[in-house]
Amino acid sequence: MDSQKFGTFISELRKERGWTQLELAQKLNVTDKAVSKWERGVSHS
Questions:
Q1: Spatial contact of 25 and 32, defined as CB atoms under 8 Å apart
Q2: First and final CA of the chain: distance in angstroms?
Q3: Burial class (CB in 10 A: 0-12, 13-18, 19+), 32
Q4: Do the beta carbons of residue 37 and residue 30 sit within 8 Å?
Q5: Model-level pTM?
């Protein structure tokens, strides 16, 4: 899965659940900035 597809996938799942980027980040124990980067396809490592 490329970075852009991964980002779209994460974003869609998050929105389906009604979560903000911060809420998802807290559940995954990462920063909201990391979630933002994933969704934009900047990084997924």
A1: yes
A2: 12
A3: middle
A4: no
A5: 0.84
